[in-house]
Write a structure and sequence with these properties.
The chain has 155 residues and is of the alpha+beta class. It has a single domain (2-132), classed as START domain (Alpha-D-Glucose-1,6-Bisphosphate, Chain A, domain 4, 2-Layer Sandwich). 25% of the residues lie in helices and 43% in strands. It is built from 4 helices and 7 strands; from the N terminus they run E-H-H-E-E-E-E-E-E-H-H. A hairpin with a 3-residue loop joins strand 4 and strand 5 (75-84). It is globular, with a radius of gyration of 16 Å.
Length: 155
Amino acid sequence: MQIRESICIHADASTVWRFVADPELQRLWNPKVVSVQRHQSQPVTFGEQFAMVYRMSGKERPTQVQVQKCEPPNRVVFQHRIASNGQEQTAQETYEISTGRDGVEVVQTIDLSGVKIAWPLRALIWFITRFGKSVEQPYLERLKQVVEQRNVPAA
């Protein structure tokens, strides 16, 4: 199962890249990120490993993250390993950034095929992501706000 979303951001690709590829900066726009344990504060590098804690369904869930692909400023792929009920599950999070006339398009793809989700819940997730209306501001909308607010030229 994959969840895919996209947004156009009025900024240059390198600015957007910093907010997508630096897990510390992800905390500014992704409210599920509780903490990041890395040895550096800058965009990730290929093969890098670090730990993150996410708050999902009201619970904090530690994850081990490995950078599977890193092609600045266009593409980064994070592999998340989550221990759940004595089993390891994996989710892959991909960000693709491409330059257009009005800024950049950011495409986020979350691949949950390595996460054991019962088929009725999978069907519900698919239905909600396809036809549901968000009750909170979507994460990519938050990313857009954060980037565009910081990208305002000085007067």
